């Protein structure tokens, strides 16, 4: 275990011990707000019931995301209704999947598709994952053997994607994608899965495994808040820019009731 310390501490704050964990695929679930607050800042609506599982809906109401920790096996479910030429699709991800990897897919839901053809395997090859062919089936495995991405075709020619991670005790998670899941979303997931960047977990939230490496760091609450706000601000800025492109013309007609009554305080 290595130790480090962030610079620029403020007066009156008590530093907290956290750990940078790698490989990220074995870091455990993490704080689901990493996913939900980014979507909220991107215009998604929170449809959760009090005391119930997380449920969020995209601005166009086509995509729904849920996180349920109360059932077995529990975890993340993303479903989309059919839109134009895109058939309905789904993705199911286990609850021990790190939120940073889940966000690879969910963040991509808030962005426009790239003009380039998606390549699920490219991010894995860039990080030197091992590849294996078995007829029409294809598997990529992380260098340490703990994470994988698997592709196969069923008897009808439908593409089946399966991913996940396991430590030496068999603890871990899996993810499955519908044959109709857009490939740019699967690529965004694989890029987050293969990223060599460690993820941060607070003390007491680091899984016990000989397969992970940790670096102890002291972090101020204000620093954690600043990092979280930077991510939320980026989502808001991207949403504002996207809406500006879609609606470039400024409002030219006065709003109704623009007189003194418009300045009443709202609770």
UniProtKB/TrEMBL annotation:
- Disordered: annotated segments: 245-267
Which species is the source of this protein?
Answer: Streptomyces yokosukanensis
Output the InterPro entries linked to this UniProt entry: DUF317_SPDY
The protein's name? DUF317 domain-containing protein
Q: Where is the DUF317 domain?
A: 57-113, 141-199
The superkingdom of the source organism is: Bacteria
